[in-house]
From TrEMBL:
Transmembrane regions: 12-28
An annotated GO cellular component: membrane
Keyword NADP: no
Name this protein carries in UniProt: Uncharacterized protein
PANTHER family tied to this protein: MANNOSYL PHOSPHORYLINOSITOL CERAMIDE SYNTHASE, NUCLEOTIDE-DIPHOSPHO-SUGAR TRANSFERASE
Stretches of the chain forming a coiled coil according to its record: none
Keyword annotations: Membrane, Transferase, Transmembrane, Transmembrane helix
Length: 342
């Protein structure tokens, strides 16, 4: 009996030791609660403004696939890293508000490398495009096609963030007005997209085609509207029409497709073949054709005044002052951003 009791005690001892051992292993192996939460917390949620990334960092993040829908990357472009003072301030308004977004300012050299390495088929056309605005216009469609995200001209100011409107959207464009008979009513100065959307390929194809067919005079000489025609809003408009007509199997105009345009208000959001159009007051409150606010809203006028302009045109999410910093396709055109340093 005594031996038996001793045996039981030993068994109990061994069981307790194994129990303690397992408990210790469990405590050691168990991830800390902190570690768990960290793992599932989006690191961008602690950013207090957008994060400026190099192309290498952008590519690493983009290739990791840790994004969905419209990737949270803002693209802007300028000839080099030195923005004019006013551009810097406007650009910063996006960065201040789009806190969990990445940001990259593309320079001319980077654009050249990007097109040469990622779009070799477009590069021969790209190299010939002149003046510089034609390249700056074209490369933005390539950002949209390759990375997607948000492209914004440097004379846009953010009033309040709009990215809640991006959920479940494929391509978002922004109207100046509802006169779709004008090929300039959908500007290419503010655009958002998922990567690899076919719309952009239609536009690139049009640029290649029109450029290849242009005469030397049309290619080399300055003429008014050259940029708008070859690479600007008119290329976007034609691309849109190709895309919408083929997707909806229709030959109707945008006016017909959207119904009576009197019914749309300045802050309507329209949808057609999964392309979203923001009404004028949402992003482009100032229409340089209709004259309203022109004296104070045009960054090309000496009477330019942002605060008075905002009171007149009442922008909701953003506004552009149409500074035409590339000089309407004519690099020698004078404009205020060159003369005013503030
Ligand atoms: C950018 O270009 C401007 C003139 O066009 C020049 O003044 C400036 O120094 C350049 N900045 C850099 C970083 O090269
Ligand atoms: C986005 O789409 C998903 C899936 O169809 C849906 O559950 C969700 O409500 C949509 N979100 C918005 C804001 O429309
Ligand atoms: C709408 O805006 C475009 C681009 O500014 C312009 O060409 C067109 O004339 C405008 N339409 C009206 C009715 O003002
Ligand atoms: C536009 O408004 C009129 C009058 O309110 C209405 O009869 C018509 O159906 C509307 N058209 C569209 C396309 O919504
Ligand atoms: C729009 O998107 C929906 C949902 O993804 C899809 O079913 C539909 O075919 C798309 N329409 C067009 C015209 O691309």
């Amino acid at each position: 009996m005594v031996d038996n009791r001793g045996y039981k005690n030993n068994l109990l001892f061994v069981a307790v030791v194994i129990g303690i051992f397992i408990t210790i292993i469990y405590i050691i192996k168990r991830p800390l609660p902190n570690e768990n939460t960290l793992k599932f917390t989006d690191p961008t949620s602690s950013w207090t403004e957008c994060r400026h990334v190099t192309i290498k960092e952008l590519d690493e993040w983009f290739d990791s696939g840790e994004w969905n829908g419209i990737p949270k990357i803002i693209h802007q472009t300028w000839k080099n890293e030195t923005l004019r003072e006013r551009q810097k301030q406007w650009s910063q308004t996006w960065c201040n508000q789009y806190t969990n977004w990445r940001y990259h300012l593309w320079t001319d050299d980077e654009n050249d490398l990007f097109v040469r390495t990622k779009f070799l088929w477009f590069y021969p056309t790209f190299q010939q495009l002149s003046p510089a605005i034609l390249k700056a216009d074209s490369v933005r469609y390539l950002y949209m096609f390759y990375y997607g995200g948000l492209y914004i001209d440097l004379d846009y100011k953010s009033i309040r963030r709009a990215d809640h409107l991006f959920t479940n959207k494929s391509v978002i464009l922004s109207l100046i007005n509802y006169s779709f008979n004008s090929m300039n009513s959908v500007p290419n100065s503010w655009m958002a997209s998922k990567p690899h959307h076919p719309l952009w390929t239609y536009i690139l194809y049009r640029i290649m085609l029109l450029w290849s067919r242009a005469t030397d005079q049309e290619r080399n000489e300055f003429w008014n509207g050259k940029a708008e025609f070859f690479t600007g809003p008119q290329s976007l408009f034609d691309g849109l029409m190709f895309y919408i007509h083929s997707n909806l199997q229709t030959d109707q105009s945008l006016d017909q497709l959207f119904g009576n345009n009197q019914n749309q208000t300045s802050d309507s959001i329209l949808e057609l073949a999964n392309i979203t159009f923001l009404g004028p007051r949402l992003m482009n409150a100032y229409d340089w054709m209709n004259g309203i606010g022109g004296d104070v809203c045009s960054a090309e006028r000496p009477t330019f005044n942002e605060n008075i302009c905002k009171e007149i045109v009442k922008p909701i999410y953003g506004i552009t002052y149409w500074s035409h910093s590339y000089g309407h396709g004519h690099e020698n055109d004078a404009n205020y951003l060159r003369s005013i340093q503030t």
